[in-house]
Design a protein that fits this description.
Elements: H1 9-36, E1 40-47, E2 51-55, E3 60-65, E4 72-73, E5 78-82, H2 85-110, H3 114-147, H4 152-181, H5 185-210, E6 213-215, E7 220-225, E8 232-233, E9 238-244, E10 248-255, E11 267-272, E12 279-292, E13 306-314, E14 326-332
Amino acid sequence: MRIPSLPTGKTRRIVIAAAVILMGGALASWLLRDHGNQDALLLYGNVDIREVELAFRQPGRLASMAFDEGDAVTTGAVMAQLDATPYREKLAAAEAELQAAQAQLEKLQRGNRPQEIAQAREQVRQVQAAATEAERNFKRQDILLKSGASSQHSADAARAARDQSAANLAAANASLSLASAGFRSEDIAAGKARVAAATATLAQARTALADATLTAPSNGIVIARVREPGSMVASSTPVYSLSLRDPVYLRAYVGESDLGRIAPGTKVRVRTDSSDTVYHGQIGFISPRAEFTPKTVETTDLRTDLVYRLRVVVSDADEGLRQGMPVTIDVDTTGVAGQPARGH
């Protein structure tokens, strides 16, 4: 058996040189990789919880509930309904009041019927005939009185009858004028006001009936079903609690030293611990006020450092981003380094 000889001094020098070359390459590679990421900024935050408490604007008895906790709802979906019978009855009453007000206004605007005007005109003719006869009788009695063929009493009676007939004729002419002119402008204005009031009452009744149906304001997940059918609910009493899904916001914090490296509109990539999916978004808001780091936020700095809250809007969110989930935000600061952050 041949025993291998120990490496000579020349061989050792070759091995050492090769090791130095390998270490130098690794160091250069690390330096290049670090230089390539010098514009990257890692932030840590959570999917922001945004909840909406859904309630009716009108009081009433809860007739139906369409969703349970955990159900997904879409915008405009009917979630619950009140017993709408009282509101339908109020709507019918409001419609009847409006019709009555409109009919009264139409009557005022049209004025008196042609038959009523013709009747007033005939009344004038009758009174006119009586007045003419009274005038003739008075003149005849006056002539007889002067000739002594009639008494003063008869002449006075004829004068009184003539004056009465003249007054009746004046009254009949005034009635004809009123019938022809129609109703006063003030009465018509009052009629229009009654129609406007009835129209407003009808609109309120329709709104109240529509409010007996509760719809989802946005896409979301039902996280609480607060009431059950048959319950009496007051206005503004929550019956559902809804977690909104669109848009998805992230709440994160940035240290003061990195504040100049970001700005509203800066693009970001978002990752979670539960999957390898990479989401995309942009910074939408940077708080102008500093605050202490919340205890729920994990950062590489001390928790007592002052940070600035920012909001990230995710553009391609899916079911993988759940409310409250911790996320890692990779901010691409290329082109914004050194720019002051702005809040809006």
